[in-house]
Amino acid sequence: MKTAFITGASSGIGRATAVALAGAGFQLVVTGRRRERLEELAAQLAPAPVQVLVFDVRDRGAVQAAVATLPAELRAPDVLVNNAGGAHGLTPVQASDPADWDQMLDANVRGLLNVTHALLPGMTARQTGFILNIGSVAGQEAYANGNVYCASKAAVGMLTKTMRLDLLPTGVRVAEVNPGAVATEFSQVRFKGDTARAAKVYEGFEPLRPEDIADIIVFMVTRPPHVTIAEVLAGAQGAATTIVRK
């Protein structure tokens, strides 16, 4: 049975990806900060084999300690989905909160590196595997007030490209999915719990659903070893800020 390790699996794209990969016959390790949600997910997916790990990707020591508790086959997954991360705030750079910068850079960039670094020894030793990083349309083009979030997702894009080159001799494939507007908790987090403002982001058009991205992920990671779909841009809009609303 193939194995998949998914970060940020307690909601949104991560949760939908766990459901889709379980349906495709994968054994899962689902990770995040909210134990109750992860355990609920594991119960929902039963009898599919699911291991729950609770940690914050920003904490390198916690990541390493959690991975060390896994049996060897799960420390060398067939698929790693680096999904954990998010946006905090939507303000001009001169008015933004440096604490928000730290949240985004630590989760979106350092967190991705922390998890990847913890799992790569097993994957490279097996000479096979697939790392799929969740980027964003914001990493492809800048938009006003996006500043550090855009920069962090642009960093994910460049990391994906350089990781692909570095890992090519090992047989580990690396790819990226760059979603546009997806109806998840993303905007609630960005606007710090302002549900009314978050809801307006998705008004007047049909945004992507987490399941749409999960379908793309399953397709990408189940291609034969000689096929790498390196990058997908998935959007309900024409560009980051170009949305036709009804």
UniProtKB/TrEMBL annotation:
One of its GO terms (molecular function) is oxidoreductase activity, acting on the CH-OH group of donors, NAD or NADP as acceptor. SUPFAM superfamilies: NAD(P)-binding Rossmann-fold domains. It comes from the Bacteria. InterPro entries: KR_dom, NAD(P)-bd_dom_sf, Sc_DH/Rdtase_CS, SDR_fam. Keywords: Oxidoreductase. The keyword Oxidoreductase applies. Residues 2-185 form the Ketoreductase domain. Gene3D superfamilies: NAD(P)-binding Rossmann-like Domain. SMART domains: PKS_KR. Belongs to the short-chain dehydrogenases/reductases (SDR) family. This is SDR family NAD(P)-dependent oxidoreductase. It comes from Hymenobacter montanus.
